[in-house]
Amino acid sequence: MTIRTRNPLLGTVKRYDGYAEGIKLHVVDTPGFDVRSIKNEEITSFIAYKVPRLLKDGPDVIFFLFSVTDFTIGIMPSNIATVFNFVSSLTTNERLKKFFIVLTRADSVRMTDEEEQLLIEKEIIIPPHH
């Protein structure tokens, strides 16, 4: 099922159904949040309105995909906190207060496992206001 928006800049919300190792899956692909925060308010409203219509029981898992090229070493895009706060506001379900962050296009990044872990701890585990 595909739900299109009237605003072509926002794109579509598409649901894909399938099975993996005997588990029924429903994946909803939404427009991405803009690193520069230009479209984020419209995208937030669009997702908040459309996704519940595709997943009647709500999501079990949320993955955020960010291109590693959107990052400057040691600095995460400013919209990440906005995205997390938005998703948290959509539900009171505690299991959805935790998210998976998937960094894409990381083939060219040269970093040791230790450097990667330090960056993750600095940017994700330690709140930005500390």
What is the name of the CATH architecture? 3-Layer(aba) Sandwich
Could you describe the largest sheet, including whether it forms a barrel? Answer: 3 strands, antiparallel
Cα-to-Cα separation, first versus last residue: 43 Å
Percent of residues in helices: 25-40%
- Topology as H/E string? EEEHEHEH
Query: How many individual domains?
Result: 1
- Beta-strand residue percentage: 15-25%
Low-confidence stretches: 1-6, 125-130
The overall strand count is: 5
Main β-sheet, spatial strand arrangement: 1-2-3
Could you tell me the radius of gyration in angstroms?
16 Å
How confident overall, as mean pLDDT? 68
The CATH C-level class name: Alpha Beta
CATH topology: Rossmann fold
* Helix count from the secondary structure assignment: 3
Structural class: alpha+beta
Shape: globular
Protein name: AIG1-type G domain-containing protein
InterPro entries: P-loop_NTPase
List keywords for this structure.
130 residues, alpha+beta, two-stranded parallel ribbon, 22% strand, single chain, AIG1-type G domain-containing protein, P-loop_NTPase, Rossmann fold
How would you describe this structure to a colleague?
- This protein has helices at residues 40-54, 79-89, 113-125; strands spanning 2-4, 12-20, 23-29, 63-67, 100-104.
- By secondary structure, the chain is an alpha+beta fold.
- The protein is 30% helix and 22% strand.
- The strands form two sheets. It has a three-stranded antiparallel β-sheet with strand order 1-2-3, covered by helices on one side. The protein has a two-stranded parallel sheet with strand order 4-5.
- Residues 1-6 and 125-130 have low confidence and may be disordered.
- It has a single domain (2-125), classed as Rossmann fold (3-Layer(aba) Sandwich).
- InterPro entries: P-loop_NTPase.
- It comes from Rozella allomycis (strain CSF55).
